[in-house]
Amino acid sequence: MTSTPETASPSALPVTAANPLAHRRVWRVWLPLGVAGLALLVSVLLWQKLSRIQEQLARQSSDAGQQSLEAKAWAKQAKKPFKTVQPGWLWLKPVWAKWPCSAANWKS
Questions:
Q1: What is the pLDDT of residues 35-81, one digit of tens each?
Q2: Is 41 a member of any domain?
Q3: Neighbours of 22 (CB within 10 A)
Q4: Backbone phi, then psi, for 2, in 5-degree steps?
Q5: Is residue 3 part of a domain?
Q6: Secondary structure class of 95 (helix, strand, coil)
């Protein structure tokens, strides 16, 4: 037997209030893991939010394109009656020329 007392290594000591180094080692392991887990969770939530925004923009773009096509169709339909009615308005020209306030009567 030796006269020197046997000392245990610091890593072999149990986690107690008498051993504050063990608490520091636990925090050095779990704190980075907790931060990494939290960062992973936040990145997954942001990715989902970005996916929802992308889907919404795609729907809005599709709806806008559909509305554009409908507007073009309505514009074509609106022009058709004017093309057919315009020659029909020519019957007013002889009537307009006979009115007293017409430009033809001012010249004479």
A1: 999 999 999 999 999 999 999 999 999 999 999 999 999 988 887 76
A2: yes
A3: 16
A4: -100, 160
A5: no
A6: helix
